[in-house]
Design a protein that fits this description.
The chain has 385 residues and is α/β, with parallel strands linked by helices. The protein has two domains: 82 residues, Urease, subunit C, domain 1; 285 residues, Metal-dependent hydrolases (TIM Barrel). It is 25% helix and 26% strand. The strands form five sheets. An eight-stranded parallel β-sheet has the order 8-11-12-13-14-15-16-17. Strands 3-2-7-21-22-23 form a six-stranded mixed β-sheet, with no helix packed on it. Strand 19 and strand 20 form a beta hairpin. The longest helix is centred in the first third of the chain and has 16 residues. 50% of the residues are buried. The model has no long low-confidence stretch (mean pLDDT 97).
């Protein structure tokens, strides 16, 4: 006998996070995956839905999402904003994300943390973590972060960050501006500390790694570059097999050859795609932050100075770019946007694969990478363009 709640979804191709399956069905029970089985082995009477001309894959996981649906977390750090961002990105196959607050006042950053905590407590399954990007940066590598918001970390900041123990928290800092021992204290508290907007040299990154540095934020961008005798942050990131690195594959932030080189250099499973998306995903092509107008120009988001200001892509766009332009196998591109970020978040036994016991987070997409349906914890939504 099988449960009447057992559901099966058949598609021409199903990627389980490891390999492709054909003439198979994905079987779920409630919010969990039972497995991917040959169609011929489905139990009789199971409710089967056939999804034609599309593939199924693990839901995408984006660990750097500043906004969506016309809203930025910084501008209105509330549970409603978090829900709007989640909804905007879900229509593009992102079933789990980390709302990201960039350098701002201490009050705004605390409100953002409270908003994410409240959204999670309220059952917003798509919220996996909080990403705090700043404000403890190298001024010369601040990018579009407002200079008045950049400041040294204080003991009060450290205590507050250590108190955020109820869900995964990513913190991007410039390691050279962190007092000795601070990264270790944060890592011991469970914070996923990343280097970004940094001018750190190789030795400074090594010290941060010894203290528990877990990753690098938007590799190549807003960090000291690699040269023959000064590997810098980029060289340290490529050299560090025990760290993850996010990369923005939008055709503007990183050259395809640099993405290919990074994918070869990094240890398998440690290069992950991020969108660094702003309010324009699922929203208007223009928005404001810090009172400054940011607009899409030739597919890229730029401020009045012409500087890149996050990206205008969703994560499925990065998957498509890495496959069609960079030339990486589709399976690897999908892992870079699902299983690898799940592993970075220490959720690899729960998310990023379509295997027995995993949460039923997956999506359907066609040959043009258009997303038609998503499932989050087994809950189904149909998306229309």
């Amino acid at each position: 006998m099988h449960s009447p709640d057992l559901k099966a979804y058949a598609a021409p191709a199903i990627f389980d996070g490891d390999q492709w399956h054909h003439q198979h069905a994905l079987v779920i029970l409630g919010d969990r995956i039972e497995g991917v089985v040959p169609l011929a082995q489905l139990p009789p009477g199971v409710a089967l839905t056939r999804i034609e001309d599309r593939s199924l894959a693990p839901g995408l996981i984006d660990v750097q999402v500043n906004g969506g649906g016309g809203l930025m977390l910084n501008n209105e750090p509330s549970p409603e904003t978090v829900a709007t961002i989640v909804t905007a990105h879900r229509q593009y196959g992102t079933t789990g994300l980390a709302p990201t607050v960039i350098s701002d006042t201490a009050a705004t950053m605390r409100y953002a943390a409270e908003a994410v905590a409240t959204a999670r407590a309220g059952g917003e399954s798509g919220v996996l973590a909080l990403h705090i990007e700043g404000p403890h940066f190298a001024m010369e590598k601040r990018g579009t972060h407002h200079p008045k918001m950049i400041r040294p970390i204080s003991e009060q900041d450290l205590s507050w960050l250590e108190s955020l123990k109820h869900f995964p928290v990513i913190l991007t800092v410039a390691p050279e501006h962190m007092p000795a021992g601070y990264i270790r204290q944060l890592a011991d508290a469970g914070i996923l500390v990343c280097a970004g907007h940094t001018n750190a040299n190789y030795a400074q990154i090594q010290r941060a790694r010894e203290e528990g540095l877990r990753g690098f934020t938007h590799l190549f961008n807003a960090m000291s570059q690699q040269s023959a005798r000064a590997p810098g942050t980029v060289g340290a990131a490529l050299d560090a097999d025990d760290t993850w690195a996010g990369i923005i594959a939008d055709g503007h932030h990183v050259h395809p050859a640099a993405i290919r080189s990074a994918q070869r250099a990094k240890a398998p499973g440690t290069l992950m795609l991020v969108s660094d998306a702003m309010a324009t995903v699922g929203g208007p092509d223009i928005f404001e932050i810090y009172g400054q107008t940011i607009a899409i120009q030739d597919g890229a988001l730029r401020n009045a100075e012409g500087k890149l200001a996050g990206s205008a892509i969703s994560l499925i766009d990065a998957v498509r770019y890495c496959h069609e332009v960079v030339g990486l196998p589709l399976a690897e591109c999908l892992r870079m946007a699902s299983y690898y970020p799940a592993t970075f978040l220490k959720l690899e036994h729960e998310l990023g694969r379509l295997q027995s016991g995993y949460r039923a987070d997956f999506f359907a997409f066609d040959a043009d990478f258009k997303v038609s349906e998503t499932w989050v914890a087994g809950q189904h939504l149909t998306h229309t363009s």
